[in-house]
Amino acid sequence: MFKKILIANRGEIACRVIKSAQKMGIKTVAIYSDADRNALHVKMADEAVHIGPSPAAQSYIVIDKVMHAVRQSGAEAVHPGYGFLSENMKFAQALEKAGVAFIGPPAGAIASMGDKITSKKLAAKAGVTTVPGYMGEIADEAEAVKISNEIGYPVMIKASAGGGGKGMRVAWNDAEAREGFQLSKSEAASSFGDDRIFIEKFITQPRHIEIQVLGDKHGNCIYLNERECSIQRRNQKVIEEAPSPFLDAKTRKSMGKQAVALAKAVDYCSAGTVEFIVDGKRNFYFLEMNTRLQVEHPVTELITGIDLVEQMIRVAYGEKLAIRQKDVVINGWAMESRLYAEDPYRNFLPSIGRLSRYRPPEEVATKTMVVRNDTGVYEGGEISMFYDPMIAKLCSWAPDRAAAIDVMRNALDGFEVEGIGHNLPFLSAVMDHPRFASGDITTAFIEEEYPDGFQGVELNEVTLKRISAACAAMYRVAEIRLARVSGRIDNHERKVGENWVIKVQDARFDVSIDADPKGSSVSFADGTKHRVTSDWVPGERLANFMIDGTPLILKVAPISAGYQVRYRGADTSVVIYTPRRAELAEYMLEKLPADTSKMLLCPMPGLIVNLNVAVGDEVQDGQALCTVEAMKMENVLRAEKKGVISKINAKVGGSMAVDEVIMEFE
Ligand code: ADP
Ligand code: ADP
Ligand code: MG
What we know:
The chain is α+β, with helices and mostly antiparallel strands.
């Protein structure tokens, strides 16, 4: 076996690869940029080589720099992770030339599968069903319109070199086809340095289901079942699971067979993923093949018990696959939640900053449940603008789907992240969503269930009461401590009130609290009563309660009268008043947020790449106003209603901060 390997990546995936290598007794070499000097993957590896400035284009994806690190460290093989150089044929060739093993497929397979037009043609030849469409390059807008009409709307306009959900647009009519062609083309040019575009049928209400394949250098290739990745925003996955709640054994087998046929057609070895789009009748169509380890590979590991990274390393060393197709099992159910530094309340736009708090739930592995957290960050670390905003991949496993969801719910409850915007509330909301629980999901799930964006969850009265009871108990403890510290009162417990008015979301509860050494009993005006016990002490951010014998976990931060409470998909203030103060509050005017309805605010920090309107223009509802580029994505901002432009503050080429006013309306 190899004695030393280099991991040409960063973040969670570099850490993930190091773990398997360590388990196999292989020494590891990390590479790092300026921004990653103190990163987790650097700490975990046996050695680390600095390879340049923070932008990936000047460090992680510069082949010469990585090759230099390989030579300097004497590594015998390189694992590329995902993204970066993982699907770069030239990198695989450079390694081959240097006599270093690439822990991935042959360069030829990367070349043919890395290009969507080529791979579609190859797939069709190998007998794989592909999405109907035009398998060639589109020259200009006019041709885009012509081809779209031939295919029939809706269509998907895609960059042949695309990846990561970028360079892709849906069009429902000629105008959108023209606009989509231009947008995809310029996004593809800036993201991939290759602006070739093709068009295929947009499959409506589809599921994204993909097959994991694994091959060796001796002509053996097997499939390790499927992953369902239909929960997506911006055509990018957020929640994945294995197996799929939709597939039957027959469909699974025919998808598996086609995936293996395609892999064999390009002499594939190592781990790879064949992505399909599946319609409501279980017709499936080839989308693309990812010739690398996939982000969501852990769910496959959890149901099959196979360590994919270990297999990749063994295959690269030349070993024969020790697993046969008939050995591959589906054991139980696994879920993955991608924790992103992005703001769910702002259309999932990326967020950056310092992780002032990062406490993942404890990892567990028993016969009935698993919690696994793949991460590349630590408390105090920085989420920089240079790389992918994924913080961690939280996975759960249990004997069945409902139990796996439950394990995930609890794990998310115990996950503490502060300092940056993150999508934990959104992940919890999906886990609690009845439609998700039913398994009836499509790639349109997020759009359909959160048409106006994610605004946080409205809690039902039963939950609001449980939360109120918990907060009353916390507040009492905090007030007693305060009284004690100030030393004003001798018998403090007596003086701290027993009656409180609690306001949470739109509800108001008048409660009285009766405490004893073991806990508190909180009575509501309607006669309901909750028994609360907890070991919470003031200052703690994660509060565990038992309410009438069932657990309740809240993330809490004190506010002037009460707490800011995060529970599952809800982030809400719980205001606690004495009855007297509540009475006074009735007479106070609520502070209204500033009126921004006549302004177009910049939704994220970004660059203005295009202005479509001028002062004095009348615009219609839905008309494009300008284009903002951020994290290599071009976002067209549109008018929300008819109006006349009175002022424009932005300039093409200028950058804007979040909430900066781009233009104003009369
Ligand atoms: P998956 O299907 O595993 O989610 P994606 O294609 O979405 O795979 O991308 C996997 C990872 O690689 C993501 O973190 C994405 O941001 C990154 N990535 C994908 N394509 C590119 C690219 N061309 N350049 C840089 N990063 C990329
Ligand atoms: P990427 O390389 O960015 O991962 P894919 O071709 O795999 O690009 O597509 C990403 C996602 O976009 C898919 O998972 C699916 O949700 C959606 N998508 C892609 N092509 C189609 C299509 N023809 N019809 C409907 N949805 C599609
Ligand atoms: Mg894809």
